[in-house]
Design brief:
Elements: H1 2-62, H2 67-86, H3 89-110, H4 114-118, H5 120-153, H6 159-165, H7 178-181
Length: 191
Amino acid sequence: MVLIVLSVFAAIFIILIVYGIVIYNRLVSLKHAVSQSWSNIDVLLKQRHDELPKLVEVCKRYMKFEQDTLEKVMRARSSVFHAQQQGDVARLGQAENQLRQGLMNLFAVAESYPELKADQSFRHLESRITQLEEAIADRREFYNAAVNQNNVRIEQFPDIVIARWLNFQPFKLLEFSREEKQDVNLTPLFD
């Protein structure tokens, strides 16, 4: 009888250990999915980071009186780069908004320069940056989905027991404030 009781307890103990290992492996998988999603964003941010100076240089040839617009784009580019390097998701969201506004202003001002709009390099860079912006938005969506999945799992029972015991931490969503989500008002550029 004692042997049967010990065997049942041993079986339950082994099942709990295996179940704990399964939970741990799922949490590790989710953590790495978040890291991979961030890396995907990082690659696109670096590509855009490399393209922006080329765009500004092309624009400088035509837009001699629009230095302020060009400088804002470059400052925003620098802010995105620093937030990206530090992995500061909140600051990255703010910097991304500044860059998005700067690019919209730059493209709007470029409308006033027909020779710039006709420049093949400008058209290519404008298209390339627009494609990168769309890809970044897509990757941001994947990142937030991975973060949400991770954060939910580490708060659910029984995963929370393993997550707390092994110090799994939640990740921050890449979010934008209400003001940052609104369309940019371009009217002042044409007054």
